[in-house]
Structures are given as C-alpha cells and as structure tokens.
Amino acid sequence: MKKYSISEKIIKKSFYLSVWIIEKICDTEKLKSKIAELEKLEQGTLGKEIAKNLKENNLNLVPNFESHDLKHSLLDFKMTPLDEIRMQAFMIGNGNWSLVSILIFLYGVILLPNKWNIFLQDFRKGQQAIPIKEWSIDEFADKQINELRQSLFNPKTKKVYSMKKWRVREISQYGSFAIIAAGIFGMLFCLPYLWSANIADLVGAGFPFVAGAILVVGGLINLSILSQKIELENSIPKK
C-alpha cells in the first residue's frame, strides 16, 4: 500500500470528504446505472477505463463532476493526492480556469511546495494540448482511449495563437497566480494573530489579512476575464 506524506493525507481526506458531502446532497442512483453501462463497453474504450478506475478506487460518478473522472482516465492521472493536483495544473494550462480548479490547485501548491516543478511541467503540457474542457463522457465513452490520447497533441488539430498575444496572456496568467499565492500566504500568516486577545495584534494582522483576501479575489477575477476572452475568441468562426 502506498505511503503518503502528511500533506498528501490532508489532500486525500479533503477530497473524500468533498465527494461524500456531494453524494449525500445529490441523487447518485442514475449515475450508478451509468457506470454499469460503461462497464459493458469494449476493452480499450475511454468509458471502460473510467468504470475500471472508479471500481478500483471504490468511487462513484459525482453529479456535475462526471468530466472530472473522464480527465483522470484520459490523461492517465491516478486518483492519488499528488496526481489530483497534477491534473488540475494540466487543466489550468489547458484553459480550464474555473474557480474549483484554481482553488484545488492552490490548495495543493500550498501543501506540496516540493512538487512545484512537477506542477509546472504539467501546466506546460496542458498548454500544448488541444482544449478538453468541454469533453463529456456521453460523447467520448465509446472512443478508443489510445487514439484520443494521441489526438491531444496533434499539431493539425491544435489551435495556434500568435506569439505576441500568447506572451501577454501568459504574463497575465502567471501574474494572477503569483498574486493569488501571495494573497493566500499573507492570509495564512496573519490568521493566527486574528485570535489574539491583544488589540494591537488584531489591528496589525487584520488589515494585511483583508489585503490578502483582496489580492486573491482580484487574481481570480483576472483569470476569469482571461478565460471568457479565450472562449469568446474560440466561438468566433474562422474565415
């Protein structure tokens, strides 16, 4: 059995707690029957691999997060704490700048600082792949998984951006992540002092804590705006 570090155990428990809460408040019966349908598919298909991974990890499809399991199987990221964060790094690089992905990624960045180099590599791989944010199980379940993986980095299907435009976006992205990371670090640093009985500590920590929160929100807003711009450009028909 694989041994996890304390940080990885925290991520793992947080993940399972989140899944448990969602399962308790949502109807998962329909999704259980969907897993049974996936198990009937041919060997080598994406759907078959999804069902296999869920069964091996004693998990079910989670309402509104079915594509999450698709990406785990498609990208061959295991359902481990480290690979969970690696997948989020890949997806952010791939253009999936959703609030959930960013928060999960930052959670892992804070808890696993010794893995930053790996996360950066996964982020760059995501940049090089075709966008898969909108891929769904219903659409791709019966497709051969090896063929799908090969198509991810096919230069014929890859969208090419002008270097100048991409450099601006890249700088903006990295800047946003740096701002968010700085904000979270500042909030965590000030947090213990907010429980102090000393008024000076409360005041001294309160303003930096609020400033950190503003930085985080500002960074997330900027990432959201960038994501909307790219989605708008992708929706415009090419001549």
Contiguous low-pLDDT stretches (5 residues minimum) are: 159-166
Order of helices and strands: HHHHHHHHHHH
Radius of gyration: 20 Å
The termini sit apart by: 55 Å
Strand content: under 5%
Number of strands: 0
Number of helices: 11
Shape: globular
Average pLDDT, rounded to a whole number, is 80
What is the makeup of the main sheet?
none
Q: Helix proportion of residues, in percent?
A: over 70%
What oligomeric state is this? Answer: single chain
Which structural category fits the helices and strands?
mainly alpha
What can you tell me about this protein's structure?
The protein has 239 residues and is an all-alpha fold. It contains 11 helices and no strands. The protein has helices at 6-25, 29-39, 46-56, 66-75, 81-93, 99-111, 116-128, 137-140, 145-152, 163-190, 199-235. It is globular and about 65 Å long.
Task: Itemize the secondary structure elements and their pairings.
Elements: H1 6-25, H2 29-39, H3 46-56, H4 66-75, H5 81-93, H6 99-111, H7 116-128, H8 137-140, H9 145-152, H10 163-190, H11 199-235
Would you kindly provide a brief summary of this structure?
The chain has 239 residues and is mainly α. It has eleven helices and no strands. The chain is 70% helix and 0% strand.
